Amino acid sequence: MNFIQKEDLNGIRWTWNIFPNSKQEESRLIIPLGCLYSPKKEIPTCPELPYQPINCRSCGCILNPFCSVDFNGKSWSCPFCYQRNQFPQSYYGISEQSLPAELIEKFTTVEYLLPPPQQQQQNRIPNAPVFLFLLDLHCPQEELDAMKDAIVQSFAFLPPQAKVCLVTLGTALQIYDLSFTSCPKSFILRGTREYTFEKIQDLLQLRTNISQTQSGDKPAGIHKFFRPISECEFLVSEILEDLKQDPWGNKKGIRPQRCVGTGLQLAIMLMARYFGILKLNLGKIEKEEDLLKIKSIGGIGGRIITFLTGPCTKGKGQVVDREFDNPIRSHHDLLKGTAKYTKESFSFYDNLGKIAHQIGITVDLFGCSFDQVGCYEMRTLISKTGGELLITDKFNSDIFLNSFLYLFKNKKKIQQQQQQEQEEEQVILETGFNAFIEVNTTSELQILGLIGNAEKSKKTGKAKINEKFSVGIGKTNRWKINTLDPRKNFAFYFSVINDEKTPIQPKKIGLVQFKTISYDSDGKIRVRVTTSGHLFGDFASNAGMLKQSFDQETAAVIVSRLAVERTKTEKTGSVLRWLDKSLIQVCKKFAYFDKSGISSFQLSPYFSYYPQFMYHLRRSHFLNIFGDSPDETTYFSHSLYNENVSNSILMFQPILQSYSMNGPPSPVLLNMGSIQKDNVLLLDTFFLVLIHRGKQIKNWIKQGYHEMEEYKDFASFLELPKQEAQVIMSNRFPYPRFIECDQGSSPARFLLSRLNPSSSSNNQFSEENQNSGLTDDVSFQVFMNHLKKVVCDKN
């Protein structure tokens, strides 16, 4: 089976491509039954249908190729609930030779593109995306200039009708009036004071209703802060150009007074008022009923893009004291329970996340600092709203600029004007807004949950969910993601309902349907429907069929997300023991070995890479947190929850490519022996792309051979890994860190830390052993030998 080709057609990959026929058989598989799905993945062959989808009147599932059709009776039977449904009159012309796209066998994924809702056409809900920029002024002027330049560059990618708002935070908060063009005008609020929604409306004069705003010559109320970019681009650029460092933040020996929590709270209140919400309680939400009282907007939502250079030191959401003598919390502090502000600030930001999620607001965070910025406490605020997270050293870098501009990736469409012959170019962002993912299954399967950057929504239809046991975000079949782009990926977990006494008959098909509804930046509704069907199998009588259906890459990612999710409630050591135990069980189940011992141990080719993935997962940033801060661990986990199979594998098992003058580029093992004096290595760890030159290559460069005409082939050879690195980095979020280094140099440690610490030479003075570093990690060979010994042990 070519799993990658199937992913290209549907954006989905399963751990097991043949389903077990009972829950007992499923438990014997050890590895969960699950899939990774990218609901907005670009699929060139996916048909775009300009009409409403046809739903089953009983369960709500959508017409798909697995439906049985009665062409004479003009009806179809739903494969999920077996309900018979009549076709609408527009389908009466269908036949076996003339089928609509949604019934054609190869189109298991289709998209319906529908016009904007009537409320949006009447301007009762937003008809353009909204972007609120929240800038931290407690930073060096060079960093602030880089931040401002990036924002100005982003304006070129926005649709002309997009609304923008500008707020700065520091010791105080400043909200800029973008309707006042004579000179920069702003409202200033104290960052240490708590504000209610009603108080903010009074202070900022937001009581003006929409009709009064539209009738006047000048925008009033909330609309003076949110203006179309086509009208205010020059004014905003002028305001940004004049921005300076916070004048109250330069005292020596103490951290600046940074009111991040109050700033985010204010930004959410401004967004809520813009979306027409007149009453909003920002207090602690204890029950789901309290959350449902908050109005959820329909149509296009908005983003709060936050730029931070340090942690919150005052007011709500405080993470650390202002005195430098009191360092910001570490993993050790969290483990011992001595992190002074973490529990309270996490509760505050989590509450904000629930409110923002319910309204339809996304919160993104770009934290650029050599210290932590407090994203560990803000993790659920970002993940629940579907936001992006970047942690790096400084704003004045390619990492920040390219990652930030990725948010505004767009596609341009040429539209023919109805009353004029001229054409108009329309800018549409690749991001979908206010997206919902709904999952339905046939009666043999039930939904356990989702692991990803999303939040649960109210259950719909007759979907079977496990009420007693859930994985990740469970006990529902519907999730909301406030912003959804093509790279975002979600892990879904399922289980079989049938008991071993009543197993599912072989060759019966189990179906799972994913329905994703989102709003494009032009207001149109996009509905993607993916229907995935797989046979149930009797694995007891056909073990070969079982092994061939196993996708070991997907399984490694599904298990890695499960392991990271468990670290939220369990100690890392406990998670590692669970991981080791499950690996041993997998090997006992699927490896061949006899009484002769470990020499007879042999894994099927379909499972041969799985132990290697687990070895590298144990050594990765996700489970080996030594040397990482809580902010870094949050950043790595957030990225893992967003990426597809290939990119997720890269995060814990990098790719190493070797370039030599003696042959074409080739992949090599992640081993110390791969470092040679006459080769160039290209390492891709997803977050880092590194070029490593051997000693001989380094000496040739030092002697200037690459600049000589007679050695132009050598110069071309040196460019090959650089060109490949640029291709790798060009379409990746977050933009990777790029390093060029020589053998034996300090930056080479980034390569050595990711290589298998093994040596095939017994000579301690050999070049291979000189490449290796001191480490407590066992080599992969030692790891495998121990695994084989444990598996083959009779006890």
UniProtKB/TrEMBL annotation:
SUPFAM superfamilies: beta-sandwich domain of Sec23/24, C-terminal, gelsolin-like domain of Sec23/24, Helical domain of Sec23/24, vWA-like, Zn-finger domain of Sec23/24. It is a peripheral membrane protein. Residues 126-273, 295-404 form the Sec23/Sec24 trunk domain. It is found in: Cytoplasmic vesicle, COPII-coated vesicle membrane; Endoplasmic reticulum membrane. Residues 551-649 form the Sec23/Sec24 helical domain. Residues 432-532 form the Sec23/Sec24 beta-sandwich domain. Residues 53-91 form the Zinc finger Sec23/Sec24-type domain. InterPro entries: ADF-H/Gelsolin-like_dom_sf, Beta-sandwich_Sec23_24, Gelsolin-like_dom, Gelsolin-like_dom_sf, Sec23, Sec23/24_helical_dom, Sec23/24_helical_dom_sf, Sec23/24_trunk_dom. Keywords: Cytoplasm, Cytoplasmic vesicle, Endoplasmic reticulum, ER-Golgi transport, Membrane, Metal-binding, Protein transport, Transport, Zinc. Pfam families: Gelsolin, Sec23_BS, Sec23_helical, Sec23_trunk, zf-Sec23_Sec24. Belongs to the SEC23/SEC24 family. SEC23 subfamily. This is Protein transport protein SEC23.
